[in-house]
Design goal:
This protein has eight helices and nine strands. By secondary structure, the chain is α/β, with parallel strands linked by helices. The strands form two sheets. A seven-stranded mixed beta sheet has the order 3-2-1-4-5-9-6, sandwiched between helices. Strands 7-8 form a two-stranded antiparallel sheet. α3 links the parallel β2 and β3. The radius of gyration is 17 Å and the shape is globular. The mean pLDDT is 93.
Length: 210
């Protein structure tokens, strides 16, 4: 994950945002914040109490909850906002993205990742697609629909790619077992290496705030 996050940080810098204040929504255990902190003053928001405590123990400025007008009002505008595998969990995405825009400087960079509902794999797998997991995932997007939504709330898309990931072997076996209908898919919790995989069914999008 940290290797993947290092690449994401470098992509953000290549897009013209190499320093300043960065906010990550849904920062989990802070591994992206750790990579970004070499270049940015980082802050995070996370709903999980355990993850927030983990981040704070590592010295990161992370608040528990969701992005609110009150939070935006307490902070200077951010140069970058990052949302990695977050948007598919949100119930009021337009409202959240309007708050994200209000939290950013004009010209600030947004980076987000999510699954691609219009990908070949999702169309083939249908209800068995690996990311079709309601109620955890409530909405599904494609580069086309995400670009339209971002344009509507005040962002211009500057890039979209489908990067490779290093996926833990345990997760690979678990997902295969789930697809095959196993009631208790194997997890291989004692295996600690990953495989380079690209199913081309998820995308990372960069945008600039107008």
């Amino acid at each position: 994950m940290r290797g993947e996050f290092r690449t994401a940080v470098q992509d953000l810098r290549r897009a013209g945002c190499g320093s300043g204040k960065l906010l990550e929504l849904g920062c989990a255990y802070g591994f992206f914040l750790a990579e970004a902190s070499a270049y940015f003053k980082v802050q995070g928001i996370e709903v999980s109490d355990g993850a927030v405590r983990f981040c704070r123990a590592r010295g990161f400025d992370v608040e528990q909850g969701t992005l609110t007008e009150e939070y935006v009002g307490r902070h200077e505008p951010f140069d970058a906002v990052v949302m990695l595998d977050v948007v598919e969990h949100l119930m009021e995405l337009d409202r959240v993205m309007e708050l994200v825009r209000s939290a950013m400087k004009p010209g600030g960079k947004l980076m987000l990742t999510t699954g691609d509902w219009e990908s070949g794999l999702s169309r083939i797998m249908g209800r068995n697609w690996r990311l079709m997991t309601p109620p955890q995932h409530t909405f599904f997007f494609s580069p086309r629909t995400m670009s339209a939504m971002l344009a509507r709330v005040g962002f211009d898309v500057i890039e979209c790619r489908k990067p490779w990931k290093t996926v833990p072997v345990g997760l690979v076996t678990y997902q295969l077992g789930r697809i095959l209908g196993m009631s208790r898919p194997p997890r291989l919790s004692g295996v600690h290496f990953g495989l380079p995989i690209n199913l081309f069914d998820a995308f990372r999008m960069g945008a600039v705030r107008r």
